[in-house]
Description:
It is a single chain. Strand 3 and strand 4 (50-56) form a beta hairpin. This protein has helices at 7-19, 35-38, 59-66, and strands spanning 3-5, 23-27, 41-45, 50-56, 73-75. It is built from three helices and five strands; from the N terminus they run E-H-E-H-E-E-H-E. The protein is 32% helix and 29% strand. Helix 1 crosses helix 3 (59-66). By secondary structure, it is of the alpha+beta class. The strands form two sheets. It has a three-stranded antiparallel β-sheet with strand order 2-3-4. Strands 1-5 form a two-stranded parallel ribbon. The protein has one domain (3-70).
Amino acid sequence: MQKQVSERAMQARINRKLAQEGQKLMKTQPHSRDRGELGRWYIVDEKTNTIAAHGIDALDGLASELGTLKAGETLEAAQ
């Protein structure tokens, strides 16, 4: 059986992992003009205050890449 993980919990897991590199996952506001350029999620390098990655629309894909999505877990569907 698959365990559902909320988007908020997954964001916290990812941020704990990224903090080791001095980075943080940020979410753009739904109606922000920056959303078209940055995507739904983007990563900020807190040391240089620059955007390290953008265009992240699938949080579960990033979580899998970073190893924060464990076997038997899926990301809860956004409401």
